[in-house]
Write a structure and sequence with these properties.
It contains ten helices and six strands; from the N terminus they run H-E-H-E-H-E-H-E-H-E-H-E-H-H-H-H. The protein is α/β, with parallel strands linked by helices. The chain has a domain of 152 residues: NAD(P)-binding Rossmann-like Domain (Rossmann fold, 3-Layer(aba) Sandwich). Strands 3-2-1-4-5-6 form a six-stranded parallel beta sheet, with helices on both faces. The longest helix has 14 residues. The N and C termini lie far apart (41 Å).
């Protein structure tokens, strides 16, 4: 399947079309029964995505059916630990070949590719877990929520800020009226971790692309730029073409609790 698109938007269109065209050939009601393990595909297995994958596997509740990553150098320990789990670079080819064996997918890819992957999964009746942010834009969020209802799948967005005691403590305090009449919330993150190559005023060029990465697939629906170590792995968060900056990365952790329980709206 050629990935040399004349338009990056065709990436979305082809993903959705492929999902719609094959949805009828995928077994319905594929969710595991009580007591059964969930057959899971992991799309993105490097860096943070590897941590998520291992968290799922540690539960003993999922069966890893397939790994998928556009960069064959990502997740080497996982690949070695599970040598019998097939690996793909293209999630569409993965669905084409192993769709009948998959109940749910875990999506741990850069923000800009969450939407096409999750939409394709939903169209095939696959439940999905996706790292925050849910998508790259608000419009994509609305479309994905509509797809969740249309295809009757369950979706969950991962947010570490919802997993700590502080989340439930703040909830209890607001419900008890201890915290109320809030007019301003100040929050900050001053960690130097990855934040990031702000010294650049444009995309970098001139680097040799590693042989193991499909850069066209990595770019997905975004505008094509040459490979750069300041984009992959990890630093893509600094560029709005692919991520949502420090606010989109850390805001959900340190602001969402206040936003949710104080009912601040949009």
């Amino acid at each position: 399947m050629s990935m040399h698109f004349s338009s990056r938007r065709r990436f979305l269109q082809q993903s959705l079309a492929a999902g719609a065209a094959t949805a009828f050939s995928i077994r319905t009601g594929s969710a595991a029964s009580a007591g059964e393990k969930v057959n899971m595909a992991f799309i993105g297995i490097g860096q943070r995505a590897e941590e998520i994958t291992r968290s799922f596997l540690k539960t003993g509740l999922v069966n890893p059916v397939v790994f998928c990553d556009v960069d064959v150098e990502q997740g080497p320990k996982l690949r070695k630990q599970y040598p019998n789990v097939p690996c793909f670079q293209d999630f569409r080819k993965m669905f084409d070949k192993l769709g009948n064996e998959i109940d749910a997918v875990c999506v741990g890819t850069p923000d800009h590719t969450h939407f096409p992957i999750c939409m394709a999964a939903a169209a095939l009746g696959k439940h999905f877990y996706v790292e925050k942010p849910l998508t790259h834009t608000f419009e994509e969020c609305e479309l994905l929520m509509a797809a969740e209802r249309k295809y009757k799948v369950h979706a969950q967005m991962g947010n570490q800020g919802h997993s700590g005691d502080n989340f439930y403590q703040f909830k209890a305090w607001t419900e008890a009226g201890i915290i109320k009449d809030v007019t301003r919330v100040d929050a900050f993150m001053n960690s130097p971790r990855r934040w990031h190559p702000w010294k650049f005023d444009g995309f970098q060029t001139g680097e040799k692309q590693p042989a193991g990465i499909d850069w066209d697939l990595w770019t997905g629906p975004a505008e094509m730029h040459p490979f750069s170590k300041y984009l992959h792995p990890g630093n893509w968060r600094s560029w709005f073409a692919y991520g949502n900056g420090a606010f989109g990365d850390w805001g959900p952790h340190i602001l969402d609790t206040c936003h949710r329980f104080l009912k601040l709206g949009l």
